[in-house]
């Protein structure tokens, strides 16, 4: 059991669940809805310019069968907003708004959970460092950098925090310290990995996951923004500990010889793979980059 209860505002009592369907790529769907995300703020820019589009994207994922909306705070940071001329008070308003938009969509849908996204330091750098873990900060610096946004999201009314796309062991240690310092908060922790056994910085995923072992407030540990082909091995590596969360990207790569994308772009194939991940032991399953509400519909259709 996950120890999570899906909130159902139209029911008197929440429903306990054993497998949760997460949403898919928020930015991917926002682009489909007409958003221009070429700015380094990425989806966080829409918190300023088009918040109603973020709410619509969340609503579409709930309509597709998602149990969880992950907020548009992945790249919403005090430092990132400051680079765009926004002060600390306005940045805090926007970070809180990311949770409120997801809550509004959840309440309109009549069920679901809101996971406040805690993106990695590399997302703020906007240079791809979340896929390498090659940072210019050590663990203590990362703890300090994360803390301001963490404190806002921890008090935002979200059901839990989604510490996601974490590529490095020092960053995982920093997040473990923040979690220890906020006893009322629950979270999942999801790493980005280079293969079937190691984080992007080369740390074995077993070693990184061990940082959270035995913590009753960590509802799951797992993997996101990683190619689907690595999911079976990574799930196997995480067995025997906390529940496992997986939400890979589509895993697409360009095959120049046959002029086609290779991966699981097809929603039906993605849903079939999700059923395999469930059988392998994953308890929270969704999609990341280049996945859409159609992928989530197929996950919901294929899970038992």
Describe this structure as you would to a colleague.
This protein has 304 residues and is of the alpha/beta class. It has helices at 26-32, 45-49, 51-64, 78-82, 88-109, 121-125, 139-154, 169-180, 205-209, 231-238, 267-280, 293-302, and strands at 5-6, 15-16, 20-21, 68-70, 113-118, 160-166, 187-191, 218-224, 244-247, 253-255, 260-262, 282-285. The strands form 3 sheets. Strands 3-12-9-8-7-6-5-4 form an 8-stranded parallel β-sheet. The chain has a two-stranded antiparallel sheet with strand order 1-2. A two-stranded antiparallel ribbon has the order 10-11. Helices cover 40% and strands 16% of the residues. The model is unreliable at 11-16 (pLDDT under 50).
Topology:
Layout: E1 5-6, E2 15-16, E3 20-21, H1 26-32, H2 45-49, H3 51-64, E4 68-70, H4 78-82, H5 88-109, E5 113-118, H6 121-125, H7 139-154, E6 160-166, H8 169-180, E7 187-191, H9 205-209, E8 218-224, H10 231-238, E9 244-247, E10 253-255, E11 260-262, H11 267-280, E12 282-285, H12 293-302
Parallel strand pairs: 3-12, 4-5, 5-6, 6-7, 7-8, 8-9, 9-12
Antiparallel strand pairs: 1-2, 10-11
Helix pairs in contact: 3-5, 3-12, 7-8, 11-12
